[in-house]
Design brief:
Blueprint (H helix, E strand, L loop, with lengths): L7 E6 L9 H15 L3 E6 L16 E4 L6 H9 L3 E5 L1 H14 L4 E5 L4 H17 L14 H8 L3 H12 L2 E4 L2 H9 L8 E3 L20 E4 L5 H21 L5 E4 L5 H4 L8 E5 L4 H7 L2 E4 L9 H8 L4 E3 L1 H4 L10 E3 L3 H13 L1 H18 L2 H17 L1 H7 L1 H26 L1
Parallel strand pairs: 1-2, 1-4, 2-3, 4-5, 5-6, 6-7, 8-9, 8-11, 9-10, 11-12, 12-13
Amino acid sequence: MSLPPATKVLVIGYVWPEPQSSAASGHVMQILETFLQQGWDITFSSPAGPGEHKADLTALGIREVAIELNNSSFDHFVAELTPDIVVFDQFMMEEQFGWRVEKHCPNALRVLETSDLQSLRHARHQRLKDRLKLSDDQNDFSELFSPALAEEFSLMADTDLAKREIAALYRCDLNLMISEVEIELLVQQFGLPRQILHWCPLMVTPPTTALRTFAERANFLSIGNFRHAPNWDAVLWMKNAVWPLIRAQLPNAQLHIYGAYTPPKASALHNAAQGFHIMNWAEDALQVMSEARICLAPLRFGAGIKGKLIDAMLCGTPSVTTPVGAEAMHGEHPWPGAVATTAQALADEAVRLYTDEAQWKDAQVHGHTLLKQRYAHTEHGPSLIEKLKYCQDNLLALRKLNFTGSMLRHHSHKSTQYMSQWIEAKNRL
């Protein structure tokens, strides 16, 4: 008796995964690993060029296929592949390739991996810019953090980015969301059907080996891809406000800042005399995190959940962050470190945890508990597979319930098809 054919999955990536460079890529890899555990047949494609830290997908048994924007060769590729599930990595890929998938594989389950709500992140960035124009105060940013969902909606609703992103969410059969706050924002304020949203946070295996002790660690650490605007802004706030306040209390303290794709403007901030060290890319992020005593993440804007803070929990490293950094990450559980809204409070909490071994140990325990309760791969992996299979088995009924999505797919298919044909005809002239 022959076995049934393996489920065929096509992933269309905004970039080739670099799990050592960003949490978004790390999440994509976790999803791919979940699919591989099912024995599914996976093809990963992307119009981007390979980055210097690209993961070797072929070594995992995943086919790699380069594709191009606005090129009908993708039509032949997807028609020949006939995937059962198509995963768009970020909404721009659904915009570019969704109508071609609809044309050739209308019965394929369409899944969007969001990473975070980009329109929310950009709206919060604009709010920070407006605040910086109004005041030179570099200490208190309390008004930026944790506003009501209705206020977030008002910031986003008139933006082109939100309209594009929300439309892409509607056009997909299932959207993978890493933040419960973003799910509630989409349901309560934008009116998306809850059934097309699935909570799928970062999925990890809690450590089983002994962690480094308080005495075995030294220094503060901050980490994050410098190309990600919230990370770069956090570095600037640390340089100009938070770190000087820490050094005033701990004159010999050292801060090591790691990040992929370090630009010259970041390297220029390096100042050994101030204990402010720009360390470039960390080949093993968990190793450098496990050697640090405190993780600093003073994020003034952002969205989703933060991979660096999950890494800190995995390494038993207490973290000091803002409400936007901790947003949607700890539920009813205590934060494994401290959360503050001003530069002075962030500095005070960082010094307290750095010097008080008993409180440092309590924070480490809180992090281990949080990983087991909210981020275990053994829970979220099976939940994702179960949801995907349910959607496959009930696809027609679910699409009828999401009439807005069907309508948007119809119009996107027609309008984008005409535009693509016009571009290709123009290119032939």
